[in-house]
Write a structure and sequence with these properties.
The chain is mainly α. It contains four helices and two strands.
Length: 127
C-alpha cells in the first residue's frame, strides 16, 4: 500500500508543478505524464534508498536534505527518459522543493494506509 501512496503523491506533486510553473514545467503528452510519474517514482525511491544506505554513514545530520537531493536527481533522470520538460534553473530548484514538500506531507497525514505495529511492551521472560 505504501508504494501506491508514493505513486499518488508523486502524481499530485508533478501535476502541481505543471499547474504552478506553466510552460516552464510541462509534459509533452498524457502518456508522457504517466511515464514520467512511474519513472520519477522508481528513481525517487531508488535514489533515496541509495543515499540513506551508503552516503549517510558519514553525514547523518543531513538526513532531511537527502530526500531533496534524491528528488532533484530523480527529476533529472525523468526529464532524460520521458516526456517531461523543465526550463530554467529556478524552476528546477522550486519544483524539486515543491515535490519534496508534497511527498513529505503525504507521508505524515493520517489515514487507513498507516499500519502502526506497537512494540510488545511486556518484559522479555527469557531474561
Amino acid at each position: 500500500m505504501g508504494w501506491l501512496l508514493g505513486l499518488g503523491a508523486n502524481a499530485i506533486a508533478l501535476l502541481l508543478c505543471a499547474l504552478i510553473f506553466g510552460s516552464n514545467f510541462h509534459f509533452t503528452s498524457v502518456g508522457g505524464f504517466v511515464l514520467a510519474v512511474v519513472v520519477f517514482a522508481v528513481c525517487s525511491g531508488v535514489f533515496t534508498w541509495f543515499v540513506l544506505k551508503f552516503l549517510l554513514r558519514h553525514a547523518g545530520s543531513l538526513i532531511a536534505l537527502t530526500g531533496l537531493a534524491a528528488t532533484l536527481i530523480a527529476l533529472i533522470v525523468t526529464t532524460i527518459f520521458t516526456g517531461l520538460e523543465i526550463n530554467g534553473a529556478s524552476t528546477w530548484v522550486l519544483s524539486s522543493l515543491l515535490i519534496w514538500v508534497v511527498s513529505m506531507f503525504i507521508w505524515v497525514i493520517p489515514g487507513p494506509w498507516r499500519v502502526h505495529r506497537k512494540a510488545d511492551s511486556r518484559p522479555n521472560p527469557s531474561l
